[in-house]
Structures are given as C-alpha cells and as structure tokens.
Amino acid sequence: MRIGIGYDVHPLTENRRLILGGVDIPYTRGLLGHSDADVLLHALMDAILGAAALGSLGEHFPDTEPEYRDISSLVLLGQVNDLLISRGYKITNIDSVLICQEPRLAPYIQDMQTNIATTLSLPADTIGIKATTTERLGFAGRGEGIAAEAVVLIDRI
Ligand code: MG
C-alpha cells in the first residue's frame, strides 16, 4: 500500500460559479482559476498522483494550456485515475476536508461523494468528505478563499 497527500487553495471572487466536488453550489461568489477551480478535486488529484509518485497536477495539466480553460475537474480526475491504473495501482480509499467559512457545504457533501465515486468507479463508502470552518480565522475564515486537503491510499491492482 502507498499513501498520498494533496492540498489546494483558490481565491473567492465575483462572477464565477462555485464548483466543489463537481457540484454547482449556489453562492454569491465562486473560485477563481484556469479550470473550474474545483479545489476539492485538485487536492484529491494531487493526492492520487503523489501516492504513485507521478508528480503534481500542474505538471500534467498546465494552467497555460487553453484546452484546460474552464474544464470540469471531474474530467481531469478521470484522466488521473486512468493514469494511476495504467501504472498498476487502484485507489483503496480517500479522505478529504474542505476548509470554508461560507457557504454551508453540508447539504452538498453527498452529491460530491456520488460524483467522485462515479468518476473513479469506487463505492461511495470509500470516499470521505468533510467540511469545516476556521472559526473566522485566516484567509478561509475571512472568506477570501477556500482550501481543501485530501489523502488517498492506493494498492497494487
Ligand atoms: Mg487548484
């Protein structure tokens, strides 16, 4: 077995959709980034790549590439999983945390879990997703951005 860790942050800004775990969440602002800026899936993909020592998300999908502009990170997640499988590994389980003061994410967690499970062809009960605030401390607490952390366990196919 091998383990991987991922971390990502994106700033919150006007005139962007807020997409987390592939779920379009109604809110006054969204995350800024070259792709859909889905911070949860970015942290998750870095954890998957890291577990197999396959580099980082930015190396595989450079933010200078027009083909990745506004692309759904679920599409990229599928590609990362294909790469992992091609190297002879499969995901055993995932755990993750969204660090976000607002909006309240609890109502959307199950849909995020379903999206990730479907994309990775994994049972939903192998995918942990939690949301926490920082009690208004730091950039996340001030609503300047959203962060996510993920860990992934992989094993030989
Ligand atoms: Mg990112």
Strand content: 25-35%
Task: Give the class-level CATH name.
Answer: Alpha Beta
User: How much helical structure, as a percent, in the residues?
Assistant: 25-40%
State the end-to-end distance. 11 Å
Note the total helix count: 5
Q: Which structural class do the helices and strands define?
A: alpha+beta
Give me the CATH architecture, please.
Answer: 2-Layer Sandwich
> Looking at the structure, what is the overall shape?
globular
Low-confidence stretches: none
Strand order of the largest sheet: 4-1-7-5-6
Largest sheet: 5 strands, mixed
* Ligand identities: magnesium ion
What name does CATH use for the topology?
Answer: 60s Ribosomal Protein L30, Chain: A
Average pLDDT over all residues: 97
The CATH homology group name: 2-C-methyl-D-erythritol 2,4-cyclodiphosphate synthase
Radius of gyration: 15 Å
Please, how many domains? 1
Order of helices and strands: EEEEHHHEHEHE
Q: Which descriptors apply to this entry?
A:
157 residues; alpha+beta; 60s Ribosomal Protein L30, Chain: A; two-stranded antiparallel ribbon
Structure description:
The chain is of the alpha+beta class and 157 residues long. It has one domain: 2-C-methyl-D-erythritol 2,4-cyclodiphosphate synthase (60s Ribosomal Protein L30, Chain: A, 2-Layer Sandwich), CATH 3.30.1330.50. 30% of the residues lie in helices and 31% in strands. The protein contains 5 helices and 7 strands. It has helices at 39-51, 57-60, 73-86, 109-120, 138-141; strands at residues 2-13, 18-20, 23-25, 30-31, 89-99, 127-132, 145-156. The strands form 2 sheets. It has a 5-stranded mixed sheet. Helix 1 (39-51) runs parallel beside helix 3 (73-86) and helix 3 (73-86) crosses helix 4. The longest helix has 14 residues, at 73-86. The chain is globular and about 45 Å long. The termini are close together. The relative contact order is 0.26. The mean pLDDT is 97. Bound molecules: magnesium ion. The site of magnesium ion has 5 residues, from strand 1 and helix 1.
